[in-house]
Each structure stands twice: as C-alpha cells, then as structure tokens.
Design brief:
- Helices cover about 35% and strands about 20% of the residues.
- The protein is of the alpha+beta class and about 500 residues long.
- The radius of gyration is 29 Å and the shape is elongated.
- It starts with about 20 loop residues before the first strand and ends with a helix.
- It binds biliverdine IX alpha.
- Biliverdine IX alpha binds near residues 196, 198, 212, 252 and 463.
Length: about 500
C-alpha cells in the first residue's frame, strides 16, 4: 500500500490515489484471477456474504457465489471493451441469503474486479426520467440558466444539500458557476478556487471514471486483502466504484463541515470541463442505481453543453463579422470616428468584452474606460513594437510585456493589441482589469471549530486566498475565439487606416 502519511500539502499531486488499497464500507470488493479464482477480497466481506477473506481467497468463484450470479457476471465481463470499460448489474442475488446487490465489474491488471452494494430496489422508469430532464435542459435559453437547471436536476436526483456546477479555467482553477441548495446554508456561487484543490492525478482519473461518492467522511476505510499480490503489486482502483479517497481531501471536506461528497465529471470535447460537485452536511449515499442515472444525466448534459458552446462560438464570430462590417461602413462615411475612442470602445467591446480601450494613432493617445496613463501606454506601444510585429497580441498578464506593470495604478492586467497600420505602428488596445477585483468573497459559510492536521489551508477561505495570490496581476484570459475575432477586426481596421492615409496623401499632393 502507498504510505499516505508521506503526503502533505506540498506534494499532493504525487499522492497515488488510485492505489490507496482500501474501499469505503458501503459495499465489498472481490478481485478474481483470469481463471476466476478469488485473489483478493475486502476485509468487510463477512458482513455482506457471511464469509471472511481468508475463507475465500484461493478458491474458485463457484464456491463463493451462486451459479446464476456467476453466469451473469461472466456474460457481462465478456462485454468489457477497451481499457476503461465498466459493466453494471442491478438487483442480483449472490448467495443463498435474500439480499440482492447492485454490482459493477471491470478489469484491473489481470484481475476481474467485482464490487457490490446492497440494492435499493428502487426501479423506476429511468428512460422516461432522463428524457424529461433533458427536455427541461433544452428549454433553457442562456448558458447561466442551463447550468442552474443542471444543478437543480442533479439535486433532485441525489438529494444532496448543495449541488454546484464547477467550471475549470484554462489555468486549472475553478469557479462555481451555478448552485442549487437547501435554503439557509450559505452560497458558494461565484467563488473561485486554485487548481491545487483538485490535483492533476485526480483530474486525469476523473476523465476515466466519471462519478465518485464519498458517502461518509468519518467512515473507516476497509483494507483489501492481501494488499500486494505475488508480484508485489497493489490493486489499481482507478475504475473502482468504492475506492476510498485521499485523506487530504477528507480533511478538506471535514474542514468545510461536509459529511458526504459526490462529484460527477463534465467532459466537453473529451476534456474535463468541470464537475457537478455535491455536498451533504451528514453522511449520504444515493443508491448505485441512482448514481448511475445521475451519471447518465451528466453525460447528456455534457453533450448538450458541447453543442451549445460550439453554437455560441459560431454566433460570436458571426456577430464579430457584422461588427467589423458596421465599423467599415461607419468610418467610410465619417473618418473622424476612428479618432473617437468612445465610439470605438463601444463598438469593439461588443465584439470582445473589455474594460477599456486605448487608441494609438500617429503618435496620439486616445482612451476610453479603464486604461493606463499616457506614459505607461507609450511603454506598452514600445514593447509591442519590439515583440509583436504586425500580429494580434494578447496576454492576461501585462507583466510579461512590461516588467513593473503591477505598478499600474488603474488595475489593468490584461490586454489585446490590434495593430492597425504598418509603419509607424498604430494600435487599438483593449484592456481588461485584474480578475481579483471583479470577484467577491461571500464570507466563510462553514467556519470550522478546529482544523485538521494540515491546518487552515484546506478550507474554502484559504483556497480563495491562494487563488487570489495566483491570479494577482492577471485578467480574464482572451480566448482562442476572441483572438480570431481580433484578426477579423485587424483586417478591417488596417483597410480603413490605409485608405485614410491614402486620402490624406492625395489631398496633400
Ligand atoms: C478531490 N477536490 C477533490 C474533488 C473536489 C475537490 C470536488 C473531487 C472529489 C469529491 O467529489 O469530493 C474540490 N470541492 C472542491 C472544490 C469545491 C468543492 C474546489 O466543492 C468548491 C466548491 N485538495 C486541496 C489541496 C489538496 C487537495 C490543497 O484543497 C492537495 C494539496 C487534494 N482533492 C485533493 C485530492 C483529491 C481531491 C488528493 C482526490 C480525491 C480522490 O478522488 O481520492
């Protein structure tokens, strides 16, 4: 077993969370060899099957389970395709006892891994249920409503006190973009957390195994026996249903006052876009069947989200082309508009959201909204001339362009520069404010009485402080789509500026 005691806040991303060697006590685990001999069992087997690990290890499976159950399990195992495939069976009798089980079966190394939980027996019309949930999602107009509805539906399915839609940014940090919760427990909506709250190996795992539940943060993990096989290897629990979770994360949940947690991956274009993150303030374990429906809903939600995002990009770029045409048309009839920063800011920030716009044209600086003072702008232009010859340039951290940009009194942190002539260099520059300034902190809704062994770091407030440090001097980044739009605008603006200078020189002759 990996020694989790050696893991601390400095090396979380190296904690081998897939081989911690134990499961949660809400079910049991059996690992079989390729010829269906019991190789490993969880220490709590007796409680569910009336036989201890020592009674079954080394025995063929037909001495442990009913023939009918083995038949079903073999059929399902034959269906396993690809490295991350898991089959599920519901309401199966495993022994002569009356208890029925919900079962997940998958392959790990050379083993067939069987995990089982007592069944809830709550068979509903799953297809009808998911279909009507999706219909409600499809009625949502904008993305914010779509997220809120997603959170509401998941909450209706699993009954947790709080269900959040947690979206990752490109730097791995995250934001709670929607929330459905029981009244009176405080809100997490709009809060940000640093990437380190969900370390890299956990994210990789969450793209392979989409749902995890931590049914009770106080539960004592149940070891798998034996921990190491003849080759000295622990059982890889990456695809496990019952895997016990990282003690660091358990401490985080306890510090938040959370009794049970569940999260379901939201994948868009094959990447981890975010999670449905659910908290309950006492232990809670929705049935495996319920969890499976929730996972299915989340997959449908993810597909809908993927197509909405795609559509949004197409629409955004179409609108930008319209704006660019509009700009061309307006300036053609009134060239002074190009020297009017308020007009430019208004039209450009409709295409690319920004807090201020500065225009540098033939050595003159005109500005609108939140922009740096002239001397700083002049330095920006010099740096742009040196770095970004003739191309659209964007950064969420002006500090990478100018050494002491954090001294800017105005709080601008990001810029997107559109060169609008060749020589001398003229620019339209869109500025974005520092992200931290635009984010609020709603107070710590669950201030713990005392912290766990790693101190206060593992709390939402400290997480937020850490996130703030990481994003200091940074703005909301410019997206790939916004950069494409900026290219369109560059082409238009260059055309306009060229024509104006041609006309000016024609007049002079
Ligand atoms: C896992 N951290 C997680 C998970 C979430 C979060 C959702 C997935 C497991 C689950 O379902 O509970 C984080 N939960 C959040 C955040 C919110 C939330 C941000 O509700 C916001 C509202 N965690 C830390 C630090 C470390 C850490 C500092 O805060 C390490 C240094 C570790 N988090 C950590 C680990 C896991 C984790 C190791 C994996 C747990 C596992 O799957 O075994």
């Amino acid at each position: 077993m990996a020694d989790s005691r050696t893991v601390d806040l400095t090396n979380c991303d190296r904690e081998p969370i897939h081989i911690l060697g134990s499961i949660q006590p809400v079910g049991f685990l059996l690992a079989l060899t390729a010829d269906w001999m019991v190789a490993r069992a969880s220490a709590n087997l007796d409680q569910y099957l009336g036989q201890a690990p020592a009674d079954v290890i080394g025995k063929p499976i037909h001495e442990v389970l009913l023939p009918g159950a083995i038949h079903e399990l073999r059929n399902r195992t034959a269906l396993l395709r690809g490295p991350d495939s898991v089959e599920r069976l519901f309401g199966i009798r495993l022994t002569e006892a009356d208890t029925r089980f919900d079962i997940a079966v998958h392959l790990s190394g050379g083993n067939v891994v069987i995990e089982a939980e007592p069944t809830s027996g709550e068979h509903g019309d799953v297809t009808g249920m998911v279909r009507s949930m999706i219909a409600r999602l499809d009625q949502c107009g904008d993305l914010a409503t779509f997220f809120r509805e997603g959170a509401r539906q998941v909450r209706a399915l699993v009954g947790f006190d709080r269900v959040m839609v947690y979206r990752f940014a490109t730097d791995g940090s995250g934001e709670v973009v929607a929330e459905a919760c029981k009244p009176g427990i405080g809100r997490f909506l709009g809060l940000h957390y640093p990437a380190s709250d969900i370390p890299a190996q956990a994210r990789i795992l969450y793209t392979r195994n989409l749902l995890r539940v931590i049914a009770d943060v106080d539960a004592v993990p149940v070891p798998i026996e034996p921990q190491l096989d003849a080759a000295g290897e622990p059982l890889d629990l990456s695809l496990s249903l019952l895997r016990s979770v990282s003690p660091i994360h358990i401490e985080y949940l306890k510090n938040m006052g959370v009794g049970a947690s569940m999260s379901i991956s939201i994948l868009v274009d094959g990447k981890l876009w975010g999670l449905f993150a659910c908290h309950h303030y006492s232990p809670r374990c929705p049935s495996f069947e319920r969890r499976s429906v929730t996972e299915l809903f989340s997959q449908m939600f993810s597909m809908r989200l993927e197509s909405r995002e795609r559509q949004q990009t197409v629409e955004f770029e179409r609108r930008a082309r319209d704006i660019s045409d509009q700009l061309l048309g307006a300036v053609a009839s009134d060239e002074t508009l190009l020297r009017d920063p308020d007009w430019l800011a208004d039209i450009l920030t409709h295409a690319i959201p920004a807090d201020g716009v500065g225009v540098w044209l033939a050595g003159n600086y005109a500005f609108s909204g939140i922009t740096p003072p002239t001397e700083d702008f002049r330095r920006i232009v010099r740096a742009l001339n040196a770095t970004a010859a003739g191309k659209v340039y964007a950064t969420d951290h002006i500090g990478t362009l100018i050494a002491d940009a954090e001294k800017f009194a105005d709080g601008t942190a990001g810029l997107l520069a559109i060169p609008i002539s060749r020589s001398p260099r003229d620019y339209v520059v869109l500025f974005r404010s520092e992200l931290v300034r635009s984010v609020r902190w709603a107070g710590d809704p669950h201030k713990p009485v005392e912290y766990g062994p790693n101190g206060p770091r593992l709390t939402p407030r400290e997480s937020f402080e850490e996130w703030k440090e990481l994003v200091r001097g940074r703005s909301q980044p410019f997206t790939a789509s916004e950069l494409r739009v900026a290219e369109t605008l560059r082409a238009t603006l260059i055309e306009v500026v060229l024509r104006l200078s041609d006309e000016a020189s024609a007049e002079r002759q």
